[in-house]
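Weekly sync, protein design subgroup
Attendees: M.S., D.O., the rotation student, P.L. (late)

Item 1: inverse folding check
M.S. brought a backbone from last month's batch and wanted to see whether the design step gives back something sensible before we order anything. D.O. pointed out we never logged the input encoding, so this time it goes straight into the notes. Structure tokens as presented (65 positions):
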């Protein structure tokens, strides 16, 4: 994807010039966005597992306070 963006940046016929710094910033943004999504999904999966464990415990009478 970065190669494609760099090729587009080198195109002299673009109406809006895409600079190499813009390509770098866009790439960095994508990596940060993916890391954030991955972190959120891990949190969601952990909460889901907690709920499953809690429900299992209640089904056998554990954890009832």
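Designed sequence read out in the meeting:
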């Amino acid at each position: 994807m970065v190669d494609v963006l760099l090729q587009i940046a080198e195109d002299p016929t673009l109406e809006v010039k895409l600079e190499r710094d813009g390509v770098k910033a866009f790439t960095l943004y994508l990596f940060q966005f993916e890391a954030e999504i991955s972190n959120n999904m891990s949190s969601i999966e952990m909460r889901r597992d907690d709920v499953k464990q809690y429900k299992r415990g209640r089904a056998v009478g554990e954890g009832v306070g």
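Discussion: DSSP finds two helices and no strands in the chain. The helical segments are 2-9, 20-59.
Action: P.L. to compare against the previous round before Friday.
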